[in-house]
Amino acid sequence: MKRPLLVIALLGLLTPAHAEVEVDVDAFGLSLGGWLARKGKAAEYEISEAGYRTYQPEVSPSPDGGIFVSVRIDHRRGFFASDDHASLELSFSPEGDLVSAQSSLALQGRTISSELIKGGASASTSVAAPQIERAVKVGTDLVADLSSKLLREKIVEPGRVSFPAAIRHNYNLLYKAVKMKTTPVVTTPGTTTAQTTAGTPATTPPGTTAASPSSPPNPAPTAPANPPSAPASKPEGSTPPAPPPASPKTTTPATDAPPAPPPAATGPAAPANTQAANAAPAKKTIPLPDIKPYNPSGAPATPLPTKPAKEKSLIMEHGGEVLKLARDVVKSTAAQ
């Protein structure tokens, strides 16, 4: 009877794992050079001396349990020209197989879309790896369709001509980044539930610890029992030892009483301040040296001796009056 129960328990634990399809965005970015452009949201690289930019893929679940992946790819033409844009769309089944692929280009107002390439059973020719063979054929058909439609537009610019090759480059790297993620489903049989119920006291120690150690509270009172033993030791020693500890306590405040000297120190501090105040006015009277103005000529600044004023002659003193009389005489004669 025990063996069948063990077999049933093992079968319950060894349930099949559930697999999900996912895209390893980090691995896809590293294959393109790293998500270093556009604040870590895009990767820039060159193909045939033409610059391209790929943004992080957008992944959404499909109704059948698979995923739908879309990627935006830009052709960087330079500062004085608008970039070209392209989109790559891939659909995967729940088992990780490629279902369909489609791409479209936008070149300055002109739109070129490829046909929806489906990876059916007729597309595979290899028996060993039919899934990989289908993916290779889908990518080849996709790029061939885009290239043929692009040539009809008479495109001559090198970066635009190699745009389908850049799309195929992203197609190959994105296909490698798609992986199956296994998530094991753990089912607990009835025995485990019984164990959990039996182990509830162990699993719920936080709430029950206070209740389960109800017996240990007895040791807790034993701890306070020790203090009573201490007072018992005091009478054994003698009553006098008890006062000595009290006396140091009283003496400590007595020793703390010496704050009285500080007020005495504050008393003499006042005269010191008064002396400093008395000495301060004496320092105010400081003679300043006589500062002479700057003399750019370099002549001595010593005053020159004053020359005695010369006596004016009579002609210099009365010369003006004589001239006035002469003018009047000339005018009177001229008038006659």
From TrEMBL:
Which keywords appear in this protein's UniProt record, sorted alphabetically?
A: Signal
The answer to keyword Signal applying to this record is yes
Per the record, where are the segments of Pro residues compositional bias?
214-230, 238-247, 256-265
Answer yes or no on keyword Signal: yes
Question: Composition bias, kind Low complexity: at what positions?
Answer: 187-213, 266-282
- Which positions make up the signal peptide? 1-19
UniProt superkingdom: Bacteria
Stretches the record annotates as Disordered: 187-308
User: By what name is this protein known?
Assistant: Uncharacterized protein
